[in-house]
Amino acid sequence: MALGDLLRRTTLLDRVLVSTLFCAALLSLFLLAQVEPGTLVIVEQEGRIVYRAPLEQERTLRLSGPRGETVLAIEGGHACIIAASCPHKVCMGMGKIARGGELLACVPNHLLVRIEGGEKRDGDYDLLSR
User: Fold this and answer.
1) Which of 91, 113, 90 is nearest to 103 (CA)?
2) Which residues of 11-44 are buried (b: 16+ CB within 10 A; e: fewer)?
3) What is the DSSP code (8-state) at residue 35?
4) pLDDT 10s digit of each residue in the chain, 130 long?
5) How are beta strands 48-54 and 40-45 bridged, if at all?
6) Percent helix, strand, coil in the chain (nearest 5)?
7) Which residues contact 119 (CB under 8 A, 6 or more apart)?
8) Using CA atoms, how far apart are residues 94 and 81, in angstroms rounded to an integer?
9) pTM higher than 0.70 for the full model?
């Protein structure tokens, strides 16, 4: 009965909008699954590369910044920030990254972790310009 009430209260435009959003979400999941895993982890601090190594090389890095220390763990083909001295710890909430083009950032400590590698397929563009 709850579904029948909901359908009676919605308009055709509401249903079209919900269907479109649902299809877009499914399409984005399909496209994300097509991204190749990365091969290289690069850590930049204030525009300088401070660490570069294969993603398979497991280790824990302690990186100092203006707000204190950030701890980056590289294990199991993933990289993630496991400890940070910044006040909101948003970088820790970003989770694990493993695919080419993914980023982690700790803005207060001026830290950027990115994954490179994976095969670029024809038709993949990061930026289009004229």
Assistant:
1) 113
2) eeeeeeeeeeeeeeeeeeeeeeeeeeebebbbbb
3) S
4) 587 887 888 898 998 999 999 999 988 887 766 667 888 999 999 889 999 989 888 999 999 989 899 999 999 889 999 999 888 899 999 999 998 888 999 999 999 999 998 655 555 555 655 5
5) antiparallel
6) 25, 35, 35
7) 36
8) 8
9) no
Q: Which of 62, 108, 65 is nearest to 89 (CA)?
A: 108
Q: What distance in Å separates the CA atoms of residue 66 and residue 108, rounded to the nearest whole number?
A: 7
Backbone angles phi, psi at 82, to 5 degrees: -105, -15
Interatomic CA distance for residues 72 and 43, integer angstroms: 9
* Dihedral angle over CA of 30, 114, 60, 91, nearest 10: -80
- Amino acid identity of residue 127, one-letter, is L
